[in-house]
Amino acid sequence: MHARYQQEIALPSQSQCGERFKLMVNSGLAVELENQHAQYTDGVGLYRTEFPFIIRSRFPTEQEQIELYAKVLSSYPQKTVVMRTLDVGGDKALPYFSIIEENPFLGWRGIRLTLDHPEIFLVQIRAMVKANVGQDNLHILLPMVSDLAEVDEAIRLIRQACFEVGDELGIAVPRPKVGVMIEVPSVLYLLPELAARVDFCSVGTNDLTQYLLAVDRNNARVANLYDALHPAVLRALHQLGQQAQALQFPISICGELGGEPAGVLLLAAMGFRRFSMNSSNLARIKWLLRRVELSELALLLPEVLCCHSPKQVRLQVQRFLEHKQ
Ligand code: PEP
Ligand code: MG
To answer: Using one digit for the tens of pLDDT, what is the confidence trace for 217-232?
Structure first.
């Protein structure tokens, strides 16, 4: 990592003009390696629970999950840890749970699968909630939500899991904060209803780009069409940010776009203030945000929002960045 970025890792995540940002890390497998940054972050914005499931040859037991989640939660004491419920299907296959479909990205994945198998969902939530006893930093995030009935059913099951754990341990177990991933385009149009049901939302720009553009994120043949800086994606994100602000609905970005210089600048210009990224991007993004003024971003944004292509967007942002790096 560039030494000049590393030098500022311990300094506040704050723009030149004093605006504060929350910078969090995305985590999955190697928590031990990734938490070298724990002290310099505002927590974990996305813990992808599917990885520990994928590397096994069977579903992890409740006890195995408790131990795993407790390790993650205790690595970030007093800081938020957002744990996403199992997001398999699509490109993420479990070797011991075969799913054969013609259109896996439009099929049985994320919350769709776990709501059809509440026993899998309940064990996972019970494990999270038990691991959270005495820690109190757990937030639960629901992946691949496309309609409100899924949210209602997931919340009902989360309440049930809290009740069961409370009953078993003989203590009161309050429901942790619950959030929804914004990654299927339908939920862009359901924000007020989501805000009335859950505590926060987190934008998965990787899948949101894939579904808005109808481009498989892993297909090399159409890779030139997969671009989160596509003007349509940026306009959707801009409207989303505005609406979340108007609703006072806490929103963060956990897709790759928030860990890229051009992406984070544009998102900051749109009003987003919380970003979760791979820990390898953290120092660079903090360094960059510490060099911007909101007033100059406010001038950049309208120019970018009227661009006609990702290429034009890149040129505009590149011009801006040349004065920074
Ligand atoms: C996303 O879709 O942007 C996201 C953060 O989730 P994943 O990459 O795990 O699908
Ligand atoms: Mg996703």
So the answer is: 999 999 999 999 999 9
Look at ligand 1, atom 9, and give the residue with the nearest C-alpha.
48
Cα–Cα distance list, 253 to 8, 25, 33, 48 (Å):
22, 11, 22, 14
User: Can you give the pTM of this predicted structure?
Assistant: 0.97
204 lines ligand 1 (CB under 6 A): yes
Q: Whole-angstrom Cα distance, residue 47 to residue 67?
A: 15
Evaluate the CA torsion angle 55, 258, 308, 325 in order and state its sign: negative
Q: How far is CA 181 from the centre of its chain?
A: 7
Q: Ligand 1 pocket test: pick from 254, 267, 272, 277 the residue with the most ligand atoms within 8 Å of its Cβ.
A: 254
C-alpha 95/C-alpha 110 separation (Å) is 16
Count of residues making up the chain: 325
User: Considering only CA atoms, which of 75, 50, 58 is closest in space to residue 131?
Assistant: 75
Report the sign of the C-alpha dihedral through residues 48, 54, 56, 58, in that order.
positive
Q: For ligand 1, say whether the CB of 48 is within 6 Å of any of its atoms.
A: yes
User: CA-CA distance, 250 to 252, in Å (whole number)?
Assistant: 7
Q: Is the pLDDT of residue 74 over 80?
A: yes
pLDDT single digits (tens) 249-298: 999 999 999 999 999 999 999 999 999 999 999 999 999 999 999 999 99
Residue 183 CA, closest ligand 1 atom number:
2
**Predicted-complex ipTM score:** 0.99
Give me the mean pLDDT over the 200-228 stretch.
Answer: 97
Band of residue 30 on the pLDDT scale cut at 50, 70, 90 = low
Virtual torsion, Cα 182, 185, 186, 189, nearest 10 deg: 80
pLDDT of residue 33: 52
- Rounded CA-CA distance 262/80 in Å is 26
Indicate whether residue 49 lines ligand 1 (CB < 6 A).
Answer: no
